[in-house]
Amino acid sequence: MDMYEIRFAVEDLLHAYAHCIDSDTLEEWPSFFTEDCLYKVIPRENTDQGLPIAVMYCDSQGMLKDRVVAHRKANLYAPHFYRHLVSNIRITGQQNGVIAAHSHYVVFRTLADPLQYGTTEVYSTGEYRDKIVVAPGRSKFTEKIVIVDTCRISSLLVTPL
Amino acid sequence: MDMYEIRFAVEDLLHAYAHCIDSDTLEEWPSFFTEDCLYKVIPRENTDQGLPIAVMYCDSQGMLKDRVVAHRKANLYAPHFYRHLVSNIRITGQQNGVIAAHSHYVVFRTLADPLQYGTTEVYSTGEYRDKIVVAPGRSKFTEKIVIVDTCRISSLLVTPL
Amino acid sequence: MDMYEIRFAVEDLLHAYAHCIDSDTLEEWPSFFTEDCLYKVIPRENTDQGLPIAVMYCDSQGMLKDRVVAHRKANLYAPHFYRHLVSNIRITGQQNGVIAAHSHYVVFRTLADPLQYGTTEVYSTGEYRDKIVVAPGRSKFTEKIVIVDTCRISSLLVTPL
Question: Which end of chain C is more exposed for a tag (fewer CB within 10 A), N or C?
Fold first, then answer.
């Protein structure tokens, strides 16, 4: 693949990923990752100080599936939906067919409870630091580190970023 | 046109469209659409339930021109301007020379009344579902469906999204 | 360079620029500009009326370096960090190897003082009107005009946009 194809493949994966979450088809969310993978949501203050604690941590596709089951069957939370805007995508490295790509995101949250129905707020901003296997059929994340600026999280983080 | 040219033509149309609204040159806004067209702003809750009611509905370029005349001569509203950020552009289909493209938008509104002058707020987030005739000279929308997350609309929706 | 290479070079410069500010490596910020350059932050109301007064004004790389020194050693301000999203990039002209490019930005500010730690707000939206020397090695801004919608600036503008 040439550099143009790689850029577009990375864009396409990031946008399909965001669409999956924003349209609440979370059952497909684990399939954006390889079997062995790392998905981590970590506050910026921890990253900056080299501290390891993450808000979400999954190191296999199976753990991602567990999260979705918990989301659907166990977790209690106020109804809402997300809107991602992902931009400033930069290819930062390439090694053994794995592309490193960084991007900036903002997630807006629209509340869907009767009282605040249809109100939108800035829910989270931050950076994606991804490692991506760019494959002819469909690209996948081997690693997705979400560095969260907004470490004072409004209510709770239940839907993945 | 190859896939690269189509991607760039879609991006260029979306960005020229946003620039037209944000720079308040609304008189040119109808020219972004074909003569026969559909422009619809519909709350996400209606779309999700298959309900048809839209907040704005225009099914010809003439109706779009009417809206602009109303905007300039009849409507009363607090002075403001918009800033669109459009990203996550995905080509979702292609049939008979018409490209289907989805994207995410956020519109920020800056108030221009004496009291709140220069204050910016998140006004609307949502999705564009567009059908686009990509032509050598200038591409146009045959259909632009704006799915609005923020269905509790702050004050009123007077400037198109 | 063909049109594709120019588009990507412009994108890459804009995103590297935003990354430099957002990761607080401001010492590298002046190197994004040519020696002779113009960096200006101007409220939209002034631009619209043809009024010249700017909030920040630097017309050489040296003045940009001064700003960084002031930022590190003299200025007093509440701790915070930025997150830029830059999108809607349009190439608007090309003359003697200098590319004119306009884009839309939003800067989110996350507060880092003990009381409001980790809270994110919309800090500024607006438009970049850039002139860029696109060079094989590294592209640079000869001119970067930041037209600010949010002219009621929250607290003060100390970190560049």
Answer: N
